Amino acid sequence: MDFETLDYSVSDQILTLTLNRPDRMNAFNTVMRRELIAAFDAADADDSVRVIVITGAGERAFCAGADLEKGGDTFNRDKRAQEEDLEGERDGGGTVSLRIYDSKKPVIAAVNGAAVGVGVTMTLPMDIRMASTKARFGFVFARRGITMEACSSWFLPRLVGIQQATDWVYTGRVFNAEEALKGGLVHSLHEPDELLPAAYRLAREIADNTSAVATTLNRQMMWRMLGADHPMEAHKIDSRGIAYMGRSDDVKEGVSAFLEKRPAEFRMRPSEDLPDFYPWWDDRPFE
How far apart are CA 104 and CA 122, in angstroms? Predict the structure, then answer.
């Protein structure tokens, strides 16, 4: 697929989605917002995509945050509304985060450089964040006189705990990859030339060994339960999921492959074989 701000490349069931504005340190703008949503729509519709790996072009940045080329009016919706496709009062970064949250495919962030502002908050709904030892992170909003965005006030405390989240957000300071690992923001650190190979190894482990439909259901079951107020909510959806998959062709294949000591060949597809109760949530009040 051809995009202006992204490189979209599928190889052997892995989609590599590269933020591709290296001259602007891959800064986020309205075109990138639209294209990220379109890219996730395309990936969800394509059964040849099992896992998505997202990284940034160049050596300096994953995404340096919002493009500030408009100066002091960068975040002024009244000034921008006539030029851009803005959806009422909705935050643009939030529309991207919600689209990633709804993804049917596992998402791995390979953070190769600076990830600041929306450059880091867009990774929060991704499933696993792996980082270069050269990466830097910053929830710099208060230092720019603006609030958190991209649903990060929901995601960040759930991922790292409220105390760590308040430290990073209240100070707005930029911190290194080691602190990100210690604070639970990233899963692992890698030398720059080893980052993508490590991300692809993890993606391969998923793509080669698991049921695509089971993975889609498991992904959403875990994310949605972060907001549940009682384990009974998990019991309800677990029961529906295991009942559906328990009679499926994929579970027959998975058990047979295990007993026969051979690789499984799962054939169910998220585009056609998800249960009637999917999606079982409704968190789209703007639509």
Answer: 17
